[in-house]
Amino acid sequence: SLVVLFGATAGAYGAKLGSDERELILLVWQVVDLHSKKVGTLHKSLVKADNLDLSDQCREVSGLTPEGLSKAEPLDRVLQQFSQLVSSDLKVLGRSSYTLCSDGQLLIRQVLHPETSKKNFLLSDCFYSFYDLRKEFHACYPSSAAVKDQTIKTMAEYLGLGTDETEEDFGVWQVKTMVAIIFSMLSESCNHVFTEPETVKYKYETGPCSKSETVDSETVIRARGLPWQSSDQDIARFFKGLNIAKGGVALCLNAQGRRNGEALVRFVNSEQRDLALERHKHHMGSRYIEVYKATGEEFLKIAGGTSNEVAQFLSKENQVIIRMRGLPFTATQEDVLGFLGPECPVTGGKEGLLFVKYPDGRPTGDAFVLFSCEEYAQNALKKHKEILGKRYIELFRSTAAEVQQVVLNRYMSTPLIPTLPTPIIPVIPPPYTIATGSIRDCVRLRGLPYTAGIDDILEFMGDATADIKPHGVHMVLNQQGRPSGDAFIQMKSADKAFMVAQKCHKKMMKDRYVEVFQCSGEEMNFVLMGGTLNRSGLSPPPCKLPCLSPPAYAAFQAAAVIPAEAALYQPQALLPATRTAQASAAAPPAVTYYPAQAAQLYMNYTAYYPSPPVSPTTVGYIAAPPGAVAAAATATHTPILPQPGALVRMQGLPYNTGVKEILSFFQGYQYAPDDYNGLIQLSDQARSVLQAPKEWVCL
């Protein structure tokens, strides 16, 4: 038997049903016996929604009113009545089992499952299997319109059935027409058989993903704006009703191995992915989640792995994974098992633990633990921030993809702080300073097009370009080294900054208007720490943790680091000719443009960092052929370090390490010669690194 089901929400109707998160307000159904071709009683039930504000389209199409819906039963009771009435009708027809049949997939996948999940009650088993009448109709009549273009009306017109919707109430005509279509498909001329129903997965299945696996880009989406504590099960719940592939949720991590509020989700086919895209800006709790297309390559980059150790750890399927963070570096498997205790036994004992280590074998303080059921995992999560040794331990839900990322793509491949490029040459920038005081002689440009360059900013500022301080243009980049849409400009005086802010505020650059605010050097640093600056004043940064706070701009006064080849260029070889005669007269002598990589080395943990400082005549970094490099070096006797010499960087030092311990560590090795003064003019800080080994700078 089939139960023909039709429904409507308080919002969009037709192809957009369920895309606006509006609640169900109407259910109409009727039982059909496929063997005897008899039907049961047609039932129509209104549903009382929490929000009775109906859209104009809903009012027009359905004819329903908030007053009528206010007297109806809530959804959970309507579904109970549905089960009871269907069972009663089946007994009358002499049948016991049935499968739902709906017009398309939206009612089941995009309305019923998401709404019941949000309201925290379970749907009966019958809602996890159903026939899509549009697909069945197209299989029976291949010459009909494509499945995505089918509607009840077009199917009825194809068969020559009556299509006057005004003869019946809304919902009643749809169900009666669907029943007539089914009977036409069962006729001797067609003799259609309903054999392969659509299925909805009961739960999300975890599992590993190999980098060698092929992932169809038409099945992957990117979800953005997730709460940081959300797990793969929370994401699966957000997409309830849609079938996610096994191990198809990959939480994205930032450079420090922490979740960044994004996830890549892989569905079983492109149809499910397209339905997922309709949930753009649906809510998870109080947050709306953005949903975009992604590629299979992006998914494999996050979720794929090849480590035998990880593969063996994840080979135990349908396990709940918990991540432990902040473990003492001396913690053993026995310590972790003792911390968790008998109330939350680990699957396989020691085999259910995976410690995360750096490439050299040192522990990172992270571990992953497997539990066989939700109850054990919940008991483990209750130990969040309990003490092991002298440290409190954080526990979070995790995923197989996160295990792959943390163990393989992060700690097992490259350190969190990138190593310095080789060879390197300390280069002392010309004497310039970036203001850090309270004088408001700077302006902030906000809302720049991401494609905007220095030329665009100078053109945007017009005549005020002549009032920019030397090296006073600072493009603000995000942690990936891309433009953030902001820039800071140092002007020659506070009056000049005020005039620029008044003249250029909300002036157009390309197709966007740019906001211009007057600010001080101190405020400039404040913004780079995560605070906000507008005409209303300053809002403090959301976080001032030492590990996240960027160094002051004064960090650029220290020795910068640039590739050796770039250091051989002279300013004339690096920079283009002056743009105009006027700019040439006003500009100071040209200076080397320091590549963004140098700044990134100093500010790896910051949310934002400034690009190297630029003068109005300093537009870019122009590469020259190797011959020009050699000629420039020969002509000017550019001093460089001898090849045998090298700087080393020490990572992972104990916090209480002193100079004596470092020198003892290098006992038996020859330090750099003391006399480096003749090679290059050094600042005090740079000389301390090269000349006095007792003052090593350790990062």
From TrEMBL:
Q: What is its main location?
A: nucleus
User: Which InterPro entries is this protein grouped with?
Assistant: ESRP, Nucleotide-bd_a/b_plait_sf, RBD_domain_sf, RNaseH-like_sf, RNaseH_sf, RRM_dom
Q: Which GO terms describe its cellular component?
A: nucleus
Coiled-coil annotated spans: none
Does NAD appear among the keywords? no
Q: Which UniProt keywords apply?
A: mRNA processing, mRNA splicing, Nucleus, Repeat, RNA-binding
Query: Per the similarity annotation, which family is this?
Result: Belongs to the ESRP family.
From the Swiss-Prot or TrEMBL record, state where the protein is found.
Answer: Nucleus
A molecular function annotated in GO for this UniProt entry is: RNA binding
Species name for this entry? Chordeiles acutipennis
Know the name of this protein? Epithelial splicing regulatory protein 2
Q: Signal peptide: which range, if any?
A: none
Family annotation (SUPFAM superfamilies)? Ribonuclease H-like, RNA-binding domain, RBD
Q: Where is the RRM domain?
A: 219-296, 320-400
- Top-rank taxon of the source lineage equals Eukaryota
Taxonomic placement: Eukaryota, Metazoa, Chordata, Craniata, Vertebrata
One example of a Gene Ontology biological process annotation: RNA splicing
